Amino acid sequence: MKARTDLIVIGGGLHGLSAALQSARRGLRVVLLEGAFTGRHASGATAAGVRSLNRAVEELPLSLEAQAQWEDMTTLVGDDCGFHAGGQVQVAMDADAEARIKARIARLEALGMHHECWIGPDRLAELVPVMQPGALGAAYVARDGSADPHRTIRAFRAACLDTGVEILENHTVTWLAREETRWTVVAGGITHVAPTVVNAAGAWGRQIAKLAGDPLDVGIKNSMMIVTERCEPCLGPVISAQNRKLSFKQTADGTFLIGGGVQGRLRPGGGSASVDFGALSGAMSTTLALFPWVADLRLVRAWAGMEAATADLLPVIGPSRRAPGLIHVFGFSGHGFQLVPSVGRVIADLAETGRTRTELSAFDPGRLATNRKAA
Amino acid sequence: MTFDVAIIGAGPAGMQAACDLRARDLSVVVLDEQPAPGGQIWRGVERNCQPGSHLAQGLGAEYRQGADVARSFRASGADYRPLSRVWQIEESGKEATTQSWQVFVTREGQAEVIEARRVLLAIGAQERPVPFPGWTRPGVMTVGAAQILLKSGGLLPEGPVWISGAGPLPLLYAHQLRKLGGQIEGFLDTAPRDTLRRGLPHLNGALRDWKSLVKGLGWQAGIRLSGLRRETGVTQLRAEGGERLERIRWQTPEGEKSAAAGVLLIHEGLVPSVHPTLSLQCEHAWSDTQKSLRPVLDAWGETTRSGLFVAGDAAGIDGAKAALAKGTLAAIGIARSLGVLEDTKARQARAAGDRALSKARAARPLLDSLYPAPEGKISDDTIVCRCEELTAGQIRAAARRGAADPNRVKAETRAGMGPCQGRQCGYTVARLIAEAHDLPRAEVGFHNIRPPLKPVTLGELASLGKAKT
Ligand SMILES: Cc1cc2nc3c(=O)[nH]c(=O)nc-3n(C[C@H](O)[C@H](O)[C@H](O)COP(=O)(O)OP(=O)(O)OC[C@H]3O[C@@H](n4cnc5c(N)ncnc54)[C@H](O)[C@@H]3O)c2cc1C
């Protein structure tokens, strides 16, 4: 049996859900195929930092658009997704870090972007009283913050269902092929047919690309996270540090979430990632230098999440150069959460009209194309 | 240094395996949380069996036997490290010859990584958590916890004490408590009343272990003779009160009853400790008779991850005697996999071990059929996840909202994300999912286990980095 539709989205992470939702709002009939359940991988493992701070310049137009969308999430998905604009702070722990931050802010200013500002030690101590004094200052974005990832997944999923998106969980895509003007996609024993396919398969995006005849040179990241026991609320902004692997924040329920890109291990078979405690231990020094009191807190859980990563750490967003009717949206390299609403808008543009007003050249899949024969 | 074998758990299985492996001259490290060897069953056995200890008499002959095993273990030359909390196990090195495991352990606030070529998990069992309304109220605890208080300090509960549940442990505890002068108000037997019909088919096989049967009958008779109130066919237990337990209420086929209670001790059997094997993604099988998961093991006690072995109750609930036999068998398997015992010799050695194990297990089918895990309906108002305070009603609603996957329900509700890692709620959540989707329990599985396996502070984690450099 063949099920015909307008758009097939492969992958039920937040990017798949956002693309599906916003395409369906434009009147397209959308089927979303998810191999496990919505949010099973990066979107469920994420630190959920909503950050424009220290973004690559190429990503900033999308990031600043998303910043405004996060402030008004209820309009998009009927829930605020636990977004809290507590600010993001990037600490300078030494003179080199200070110089780099100030140079970056100057570059942004020259481009007419004023979202980041430099704050001195006094203002920093006011913002983050629980931090050890001694830092030289920080970059600060007041409108940034963080959200609740599971609430975000629930809200996007519910909005998709309300808009008529058909979500099929436990439906892994095992085969797809272009026949004349249509794609045939096989998942969970059902064949789906549509003119356009969105590849939002996250860490498996490169496998889908290869199946579709568009092999791309994309790697895997396995970033780790730690969550502690609950404490009284005492930390507003999300803290990171220039030149160091650190991301530190307190969630709405009082736990502390620590990450910052320390890498875990890929499990044999490549289906999931596991924690490397030796590496985590080494990375604790920055956290303890800034927040020595966390030493007494109990670690409740640690995990590693899989996500596709590119060499230039920029995502793959846009039409495939070699497979007509295929739109890639993956490879967010560990910082795609914030971009979910705006990138979904871009994919809906492409799915609906084949064009978008957003400049995508930096994200062009063509830059990562590998030789078909070699692949 | 890299040990040949790291054994986790110094109960019957771990101690026996350590002795046998040392006899083959392998280097062995034994890690255990407790301050002294013995595991759950022989907790405190060295101290309690010193001359003049009144506890040793009350705790019985089988308990005193543990002192001998502990003595051999102490003399075995194994590097025994008490008060060591293992919180993570990782594998490094892919080939069988270069394979090594890293065991992360904390001792006196200092974290350390211990390397070993093989790992034996002899981590025993935990009591099956059975949620009912009021089970989180102070005054309610498990029989196992009460027995720990008895063994580690001779502490007796203060009444009126009620025991509710089924299985040998409540009978044994009641027996021990009476011998030590403790008082029990009443016993609520939650096993269904058709004992004879369920037990009879297994009686013959169980007679191979007639000594245990006689002992069990003795405990039963003791309870009958002691004149304490005994209720059978008990269902729908509730623990009521304010800050503390004040009253218990239950149903029998004759109707609702209630009684004043100061302490309620519950026990509905044991389940293997499977968190480490689950977190290492070993294959597990669902046992319908014991209503629990157990790691899939080959004839040598090896899991589906080569180099990782399991022995004792962690491999399936069979009791202390079987745990000793399983320890011996795992030691043979490990010696064989390390190449110090050739295959034909190993097979011969195994045959004797298998016989001992099958004898030690003889009464198990009878016990499993006499004391089945309770399967009564869990009322919507019952707290299921203690860490996140989620009720059965909330879990049921989440279970109905999507795929029958415990990981999805965990992500949605947070059940299983708290400090206990689902040790309290995991089976119940899976059962509620199976119920909502009308699936056999075996098909639902268990949520993914995230490290750490035991609590560790961030300071301890950081101290690991310092220890390394
Ligand atoms: C530990 C960690 C911390 C992070 N912290 C932040 C942060 O603070 N801020 C930020 O902005 N970003 C952060 N990120 C990144 C962000 O979470 C990701 O960029 C984002 O969630 C990616 O979403 P996705 O939909 O592309 O991928 P995913 O959520 O991984 O979704 C891909 C989906 O595709 C499915 N799939 C794969 N193959 C198939 C197939 N063949 N058929 C059907 N389905 C398939 C998978 O099951 C999966 O559900 C973090 C990521 C990680 C891992």
How are the SSEs ordered, and which strands pair?
The complex is a heterodimer of chains A (375) and B (469).
Chain A: E1 2-4, E2 7-10, H1 14-25, E3 30-33, H2 42-45, E4 49-50, H3 60-71, H4 73-77, E5 88-92, H5 95-110, E6 117-119, H6 121-127, E7 137-141, E8 145-146, H7 149-162, E9 166-168, E10 173-179, E11 182-187, E12 190-194, E13 196-199, H8 205-211, E14 219-230, E15 238-241, E16 247-250, E17 255-259, E18 265-266, E19 273-274, H9 277-290, E20 298-309, E21 316-319, E22 326-330, H10 340-353
Parallel strand pairs in A: 1-12, 2-3, 2-13, 3-9, 5-15, 13-22
Antiparallel strand pairs in A: 4-8, 5-7, 6-7, 10-11, 11-12, 14-17, 14-20, 15-16, 16-17, 18-19, 21-22
Helix pairs in contact in A: 1-7, 1-10, 3-10
Chain B: E1 2-8, H1 12-23, E2 28-31, H2 45-48, H3 54-59, H4 61-75, E3 79-81, E4 85-92, E5 100-107, E6 110-121, E7 125-127, E8 140-142, H5 143-153, E9 161-165, H6 168-179, E10 186-189, H7 195-206, H8 210-225, E11 229-231, E12 235-241, E13 245-252, E14 255-260, E15 263-267, E16 270-272, H9 275-279, E17 284-287, E18 292-295, E19 308-310, H10 320-337, H11 343-360, H12 364-370, E20 383-385, E21 390-391, H13 392-400, H14 406-413, H15 426-437, E22 456-457, H16 458-468
Parallel strand pairs in B: 1-2, 1-6, 2-3, 6-19, 8-15, 9-10, 9-15, 10-11
Antiparallel strand pairs in B: 4-5, 5-6, 7-16, 12-13, 13-14, 17-18, 20-21
Helix pairs in contact in B: 1-4, 1-10, 5-6, 6-8, 7-12, 10-11, 13-14, 13-15
The site of flavin-adenine dinucleotide has 41 residues of chain A, from helix 1, helix 2, strand 14 and strand 20.
